[in-house]
Amino acid sequence: MLWIVLGVVLAVAEIFTTTLFLIMFAAGAFAAAGAAALGAPVALQALVFAVVSALCVGLLRPVIRRHAQAALEGGERSFGVDALEGTSALVMEPVDVGHGMIKIDGELWTARAYDATRSYAVGERVQVIKVQGATALVWQDEISTPGGLPETKR
């Protein structure tokens, strides 16, 4: 049961990190849970966890990253949190350097102002400059506000 709990915790943590790293260890934990279900001793379960995790990290992750990089270089659309950068969002709660809430394609995200001197009122359109963890750093939307993007994103 411990392996299943560990696998679920790692899989949920992957949702928040989106690095495709923790999910590899979750796969190892689920494989160890399978070994435990077949009656393997704890030492063998730990070995199964280590081997499957190492194989996933060593073999699968580079393939996934290579395909993702090829897709980005080939002009295909980004995916994951990278796809959010540059999108327009609606301010749902006032956004400043310390807190805020925006809506991106129907999903609520915590937000912070990219520029510490700026704040955005409810109803304003902003543009996502960068995503850090589960927080979007936003700037005035270049379409609805004169002035455009900060110099670092032009």
Automatic annotation (TrEMBL):
InterPro entries per UniProt: Membrane_assoc_protease, NA-bd_OB-fold, NfeD-like_C
An example molecular function term from Gene Ontology annotations: peptidase activity
Membrane topology qualifier: Multi-pass membrane protein
GO cellular component: plasma membrane
PANTHER family linked: INNER MEMBRANE PROTEIN YBBJ (PTHR33507)
Transmembrane segments: 41-60
Keyword annotations from UniProtKB, A to Z: Hydrolase, Membrane, Protease, Transmembrane, Transmembrane helix
Domain of life: Bacteria
All residue ranges annotated as the NfeD-like C-terminal domain in the record: 81-139
Cellular compartment(s): Membrane
A Pfam cross-reference name: NfeD
Protein source organism: Micromonospora eburnea
The keyword Endoplasmic reticulum is assigned to this record: no
GO biological process entries: proteolysis
Protein name: Membrane protein implicated in regulation of membrane protease activity
Cross-referenced Gene3D superfamilies: Nucleic acid-binding proteins (2.40.50.140)
Signal peptide range in chain numbering: none
